[in-house]
Design brief:
two-stranded parallel sheet, 151 residues, 3 domains, alpha/beta, elongated
Length: 151
């Protein structure tokens, strides 16, 4: 029996032949485990196709095991930032198992940012700064004219 036979006809009809072949590659486990894995994989294929392209990607999983880890490098598994209308990606996971760590490595796993969080406030944009300078100059000229200074 092929693993795809554990899927409902409705679910199978939504999958491509390549996806069904990948599901058939699941061969180890009890009947219950095979059914669960096949359905999980099928749903993940469908969910991925429905994903909003503006969404940020999720961070990956990193697993490092060693007796001695030396260095000041970076281990990062951050989620991607969202584009307009999307959702930020989730943080990944990092597991480091070691008897000894020498140095000060940076280990980071955080979620992406919302599109609006990445926007520069209007008062920090060039056009607004120019407007502020012009308004300030106009105020100085008005004050000088009020004081009777002629140009």
């Amino acid at each position: 029996m092929a693993t795809r036979d554990y899927l409902s006809k409705k679910l199978k009809s939504k999958l491509t032949s390549e996806e069904l072949e990948l599901i058939d590659g699941i061969t180890h486990g009890s009947t219950i485990e095979l059914k669960q894995r096949a359905n999980d994989m099928a749903l993940s294929f469908i969910k991925e196709r429905m994903r909003n392209p503006a969404d940020g990607g999720d961070g990956g999983s990193i697993y490092i095991a060693g007796r001695k880890i030396i260095g000041n490098g970076k281990i990062i598994s951050n989620g991607g930032n969202a584009a307009l209308g999307g959702k930020p990606g989730n943080a990944g996971s990092i597991t480091v198992i070691s008897d000894y760590i020498e140095g000060n490595p940076k280990i980071e796993a955080k979620g992406g940012k919302q599109y609006l969080d990445m926007q520069i406030p209007f008062y920090k944009k060039g056009w607004f700064i120019t407007l502020e300078v012009l308004a300030g100059l106009a105020a100085i000229v008005t004050i000088l004219q009020f004081l009777g200074v002629s140009f």
